[in-house]
Amino acid sequence: MTLVKDIVALLEDFAPLSLQESYDNAGLVCGNPEAEVASILLTVDVTEAVIDEAIAEGHNLIISHHPLVFQGIKKLLPDNEVNRCLIKAIRHDLNIYSAHTNLDSVLQGVSSRMADKLGLINQSILQPSGRLFSLTFYTPENEAEKVRAAVLDCGAGHIGNYSHCSFNSRGNGTFQALDGARPFVGEIGKIHTEPEIKTEITVPEYLLNRCVRTLKAVHPYEEPVWNVVCLDNTNPVTGLGIIGELPAPVESRRFLQHVKDTFHCDIIRHTPLCKPEIKRVAVCGGAGASLTKVAIARKADLYITGDYKYHDFFNADNKLIIADIGHYESEQYTKEIFYELVTKKIPNFVVRFSKVVTNPVSYL
Ligand SMILES: [Zn+2]
Prior knowledge:
Elements: H1 4-14, E1 27-30, E2 40-43, H2 48-57, E3 61-64, H3 81-91, E4 95-98, H4 101-104, H5 110-117, E5 121-128, E6 131-140, H6 141-152, E7 167-176, E8 191-204, H7 205-218, E9 226-234, E10 239-251, H8 252-262, E11 269-270, E12 277-287, H9 292-297, E13 302-306, H10 310-313, E14 321-324, H11 327-331, H12 334-345, E15 351-353
Parallel strand pairs: 2-3, 2-15, 3-4, 12-13, 13-14
Antiparallel strand pairs: 1-4, 5-10, 6-8, 6-9, 7-8, 10-12, 11-14
Helix pairs in contact: 1-12, 6-7
């Protein structure tokens, strides 16, 4: 039996909610975490047509990229589409989950999927953000491996293409158990010296609570000693956008045509082709105009995103080419990420792509 909370856990393992922007409302917005999931419907947006499709086909969990609800709702009347969706969803026991800016902010998220579609190699986060911490703890020698492994298995100690990174040194811990204590080693009222291992592990902010919780749960001491230090290093694997390279330079107009074909765009709005050929490409799913300067600083030849305003195009400043491919078009493949996450963990589970094209923009 697969519950809604099981699917939520595997999605948030990949894209933790703590990575979402402050204005966002990602997560389970409607439903019951304890409900059993019959099957899943994937979509970019939740619309009435998508809700109807889920009901007709018996899918009771909808996973979307854009949250259905962004702002507080004071009246639940059927006078707008969001409310009508919610009313219908509640009546039919539907669960609605969204992974939005948290999915934008992980290395294999929305923008990485765009980059994969274009064949970009050497991908890295365009604008890294998110703090890193150093977690230090002390464990009796015989228990050190078990405790270290449990913390590392939370995803801590991941550096570039290396996982399970830690530093371990030997030393002696001392303590005196007082009345009421239940010491793992030593006696009440006597100072005890215990050979211990000091372990240091780098932890991204979004994993810190989980790591400390795990450490306390598996550590044999009644009062494990641990400390956390905030580092100046930025976490290179969380943040917005992706920058990567083409295996070989491609003539600019030809590459833009390739982008148009790849994302099935009716049009691409772009700035002058100031670069004769394209090698370095920055991408950001959704509305990414705010990262133009970052793309220039990272020496991109082309920056692909959506939702550019007229004046924002001037920021290209003949230093790179901006290509606005449309908001929906840039995020349409996000559904594939959900599909892979669920079916990899739970093979044979019924997961379907919505047949509704939710893009509200058409071109004449
Ligand atoms: Zn979006």
